Amino acid sequence: xxxxxxxxxxxxxxxxxxxxxxxxxxxxxxxxxxPMSSYRWILAHHEGAAxxxxxxxxxxxxxxxxxxxxxxxxxxxxTTANQIGPGGTKGFVALLRNTGGQHPNA
Length: 106
Prior knowledge:
about 110 residues; alpha+beta; four-stranded antiparallel sheet; two-stranded antiparallel sheet; 3 helices; about 25% helix; globular
């Protein structure tokens, strides 16, 4: 099982992650981090950049499947951003929102 190191105000924390699509990870934020947030599941690039937060693991996993065709997520974050391109950013964000995604710090 892959692991992610997430940055928090208390310092870095290592969490277990699933990889529903090569290069995309889904993980749950630990209970003591942002305890008031109902969006506990994060969809992130394998290098760590969080893309969106979700209310459930299944919603985060479904979003990973939806955005999978947009880029080769196994590449580095800059390469995947270039594959999506500046003009594709609006559509990318819309896809995440349509699957229930919120800003990663929601």
